[in-house]
Amino acid sequence: MVIFNEESHTYINEFTRENYTSVTTLLGKYKEAFEKEKISKAVAAREGVSQQVILDRWQNTNKESLTFGTKIHKIVEKSIKDVTYYTTATPEEKSIISAFSDIFDPNKETLCEHMLYSHVHKIAGTADLIQPDGPYFDVFDLKTNKKFNLASQYNKFLFPPLDHLMECEYNIYSLQLSIYAYLYSMHTGRKVRRLAVFYYNRDLNIFQEYPVIYLKSDVINLLNEKR
């Protein structure tokens, strides 16, 4: 059994007390690290402000983004689990629920915030939405970040064995969902049918669906290298 420590955002094997690598952390090892000090100095010089001003700005932006993302996730999850939620929701919540219902059928069996793990590879993660359907299943992920690039703006690629994939949000999300799908398939014997990212465009108040490919061979290569 694997448990999630929300405070430290870590996954721990309940019996061995081993820390498991999160899927997000694992994928982060295959892209170039963000050189915060170097880049913040360059931005500060360009804007004619102190480096601390830039660092504070980035910190505030990240905090706002996390808070906003958590809010959207909770509204969506609650709307799926509680069919009466809409009747008592605020106007803002109703707007988000309505936008999500345009692309998602909440009447189907849905697993929300479903934890997945592998004792062999010592990894764990939490899938936003899984919909099992007989011998098949679908995996969906909610994304709310302002930046969602379908290709690298700087022609960067991920590190081996993923160096055939450009370093961009779309490919990282594809790998993330593919790992979730691989783990769920191993646990249940069901076959992957559909993977997609539901990206919330806050300016338009719509969820945009981005289908992703099941990168099974890349997942196997990645996990074998980690092992």
Describe the structure.
The protein has 227 residues and is of the alpha+beta class. It is built from 7 helices and 8 strands; from the N terminus they run βββαααααβββαββα. The radius of gyration is 19 Å and the shape is globular.
Summarize the SSE layout with pairings:
Layout: E1 2-5, E2 10-13, E3 19-22, H1 23-28, H2 36-47, H3 51-81, H4 85-88, H5 91-101, E4 111-118, E5 123-133, E6 136-143, H6 169-188, E7 191-201, E8 206-211, H7 216-226
Parallel strand pairs: 3-5, 6-7
Antiparallel strand pairs: 1-2, 2-3, 4-5, 5-6, 7-8
SS content category: alpha+beta
Poorly predicted parts: none
Distance from N terminus to C terminus (CA atoms, Å) equals 19 Å
Percent helix, as a range, is 40-55%
Assembly classification: single chain
The share of residues in extended strands comes to: 15-25%
Instruction: Outline the biggest β-sheet.
Output: 8 strands, mixed
What's the SSE pattern?
EEEHHHHHEEEHEEH
Mean pLDDT: 92
The total count of strands amounts to 8
- Gyration radius (Cα, Å) is 19 Å
Task: Tally the helices.
Answer: 7
Q: Globular, elongated, flat, extended or rod-shaped: what is the shape?
A: globular
